[in-house]
Fold these 4 entries.
Entry 1:
Amino acid sequence: LFTLAMRYASAQKLDRAATVLDESIRLLEQAQPGNELANAYLNRAWLAQSQDKIDLAMTFLGKGRATYTLAGNVFGMSRADFDMGLIVAKQGQLDSAMTFLQRAYDQYSRYGGRTMLPAVLDGMANVAKQQLKYRDELAITDRFWPLSADLADVHMRRELSFVRAIALADNGRMLEASSLAHQLLREIDPHEDTTLVAEVPA
């Protein structure tokens, strides 16, 4: 049921996906709470967010985090914190968003979740910018810049370069920002990086 729900979601049949995933959750809740149930909760939260049901998404994220905690899954707890941070940031609750993201960053750092750190730092830099804390924004990008050769995800590399360019501009370092933006324009794929194609020139 869980796999079927994800297939429906991939096909953009979100209502059908939610119905099937709810059934999966109902069955999992009858068993011993564990990582499978927590994963289902987080994916149900993602579906709710995709349908603009933010309160429902936060409810499922809370359930997911609690279930990961009972299972002793630190990485799952961190993922829930990360997702919560992004959602409350969209709602304009910037201090709360930074708290969630910082907690996720600290846990990933402490327990070796290196592959997730760039995405968390990306979120933290965006929140700092919205808070108008431009020095903090640049300092956050300093944590991932220059980009590590170990970061193989091309899309994340471009996203982080974009965030770095904005942080440089926000701190008056216009030549560096412009150079980085022009480099990005040469690298981005118009078919794969549609958001960056629109945002980088601006």
Entry 2:
Amino acid sequence: QFDAIIANPPYTRQEEIEDVMEEGYKERLRALIKEHLGINIGKRSSIYAYFLLYPYIFLKEGGRMGQITSNSWLDVDYGKYLQEFFLNHYKIIAIIESKVERWFEDADINTVITILEKCSNEEERNNNLVKFVQIKVPLKQLIPEVSDDVSDEKKWKDEEIRWKAIEELVNLIESVKETYEDDKIRIYVKRQIELFDEGLNEEGKYVGAKW
């Protein structure tokens, strides 16, 4: 088991999974999730959904997972399986997206960074403050880029500046306790139990909500 897992799964639409893999591959994925996690994930789920679910069995308690994927799970039907699993097994640390740019220029898809912390304590999960982060400027305005066309000494200095900026951004996201906004970033804060309650139907079954 691991302290941390990071991933950037393929941006393959569910209709294309068996075009690039052998026949029956998708059903084997669904069977794997059912066997190990007890979830009957929807047949329309994109391949990244399996990447978001399966690493749970490899994480230590308190371990964190960060993935950059399509943002479609936030409001599509099969997203309810991911939402419910996250709410019941993780503290949702942050969901981060840009409002001004695509982070991969060659990918015709809007992406989101999801950061989760494995947590078996229901009370801790319920009281966790989820941060929905909207970046309002190009990312390089928050995290400076490092050029290859400079001396090694200059590159090391630029790397130090870059990592300091990353640490400052992480500390800001993790430290805020209520909604925060400036000219570069907006952080909307919500208790995790409220997200869960919003997705319940009249029978008390989780059916998903738009996050």
Entry 3:
Amino acid sequence: RDDRAELVILESELRRAIERNEIEVHYQPIASLADMNLAGFEALVRWNHPVLGLLAPESFLSLAEQTGMIKDIGRAVLNEAAHQLGIWQRSFPLPQPIFVAVNVSSVQVMETDLIDDVKQVLHREGVIRQTLKLEVTESLVMQYPERAQQILERFRELGVGLACDDFGTGYSSLSSLRKLPFDTLKVDRSFIAADAQDNRAEVILESIIAMGHALGLFIVAEGVESQDQVDRLGELACDFGQGYFIGRPLTAKQVS
């Protein structure tokens, strides 16, 4: 009963948080492993709770999905991330423009509202094609492969980049991967963090990177936490890295 009461209170507070702009976006740097230059960011949602402080997504996203509020939160994150990306691209023009990747939930992806939302932000913010990326988990697209293919194709036509998140931990249906219009694979941290003596993990990591490149995909390694891992990934020709060794999540002001 106590848990249920707490959930009711938390749900009410979360609804108010959206109205009061307590939902914030932080940006974790993603580096090019060839030269360690900044390549882009992953947009991460935070709840700046007036009493409990800054809450990580695992504290509230499951509740948001259960109640349907994930759509409002997702829309707020998408709008804010695209807005900041436009500002950074205009303020810091680079030969290789930076990108921002935004996670989208299964609830969002399977509804046509997201396509309309993305159309609006692209038109409004004027970001460079392929630099606003949507991250979709592997398990979601493999659960609804035909529907996912149709929707993801529409995003690609709009000029949105598409990343398959947590690759290697879900269904890993290679036949579906062949048909889906991803341009990026994000390799789960469990393969990066494996002990250097774990030959099987090393073989799998090497195979994923080689396969991704053969399919014309960029590879992002998640959970990079040491120079040794950077060196190892560099030897395997992995394109990008993300993790606390490269950079912790930052506010938009800190990024600038």
Entry 4:
Amino acid sequence: LEVSDSTIGGWFQSTATLLAPLGEALKKEVLAQDYVQVDESPIPVQGDHNEEGIRTGYHWVYHAPLIKAVLFNYAPGRSAQFPTEALKDFRGALQSDGYSGYDKLMQREGITALACMAHARRKFDHALQSDRPRAEHALKAFGDLYAIERTCDQEEVPPEERHARRNRDALPILDELEMWLNQEIIVVAPKSPIGQAIAYTLGLWPRLRAYTTDGRYLIDNNRIENTIRPMAIGRKNYLFAGSDRGARHAALMYSLLGTCKLHGAEPFAYLSDVIARISDHKANRLHELLPQNWMPLAK
């Protein structure tokens, strides 16, 4: 049986329309958390009135580690106005990479700014070929910091214990690394890879070490990057979204299926159950159908 692309597209649009209230419920739950990671990833979008023209839209991704939920929120650009609007009522810890579009948001009252240690580490990894001694010195410090986190993960220590271990073991490493960075920044070429790595790290230093203030905070943004990775694979398959509406629908499905993955829920079983139930489900209890709360009906 051959089914036309337009028919399948219609099914997808109808399904996304049906599940849209669930997407809003997920958005409300994610952004109500007091610890959120944010990142963005481009998606090519076909112009609505120009079949030949492809422009770049963005999925702004918000990950709530404490409830294992992820929200993809489509916007037609990369302007700082989009995360600022989405997070206008947010209060708590916000973790991002060094993109300047988050700067004003990070400075807002009520927000604790966290940065991503993995991004800083990568800068020194890229500088290995041009200045191995300095790059290896920094990478050794990063390795020691990550070793503390791995030990805590393996032993499944509670946040309070992780906080205590960071104060005891990580802060001295961070203090030594900060002193070394300040010494080296004045002797390396500013535009060299090692100079750029040091400048990047010092520019974000208060945010980079802020993860030590609370045992619930993560050292980096790797988990949110893992939720974005399947989208990069998808782009190679479908190439672009046919419209802004199509990109929004894709964001909805990425949100629901990404959260399913974080909770080990089988996506086909989840969608089959929720699509069948959502029309009769009470609007004030939609949160029960979110992947992190979902329980299939007993047969």
